[in-house]
Amino acid sequence: MRPAVSGLEQEFAGKVQGHNIDATTDESMAAVAELGFQNHGIVIHSADGEVLFKQPDHQVKMEDVRAKLQELTQD
Questions:
Q1: pTM for this entry
Q2: I need a labelling partner for 66 at 20 to 30 A (CA). Which of 4, 15, 36, 52 fits?
Q3: 3: which DSSP letter?
Q4: Measured distance CA(44)–CA(65) in Å, rounded
Q5: For the CA atoms of 18, 42, 40, 6, what is the dihedral angle to 10 degrees?
Q6: CA 20 to CA 39: how far, in whole Å?
Q7: What pairs with residue 56 in β-bridges?
């Protein structure tokens, strides 16, 4: 996992789980296309799998990701 992404688990301890997916497998390639990504990106899913936020490819802005996670994890 990239350092910026892996740090989110620590920053939002107990509230966020991070996973890397190999986007080159047949199954993953279909998911990448369904998300509208060219080949990679970042996605925030709910516990039941609903897409709550996504940013494709080289448009990922970690400050946007952090802001969305802050919003979603507020008590």
A1: 0.84
A2: 36
A3: H
A4: 8
A5: -40
A6: 13
A7: 41
Contact 36, 27 (CB under 8 A): no
Asked if 5 contacts 11 with a C-beta cutoff of 8 angstroms, the reply is no
Question: How many of the other CB atoms lie within 10 Å of CB of 28?
Answer: 13
Residue 3 CB partners (closer than 8 Å, separation 6+): none
Angle between helices 62-73 and 3-11 (to 10 degrees): 20
Please list the rounded mean pLDDT of every run of 10 residues in the chain (75 residues). 77 90 87 88 93 91 95 89
Residue 30: both structure tokens together: 């279909």
Structure tokens at 29: 């390639």
Helix (H) or strand (E) holding 45: strand 41-45
Both structure tokens of 57: 């490819």
21 CB neighbour count, 10 Å cutoff: 12
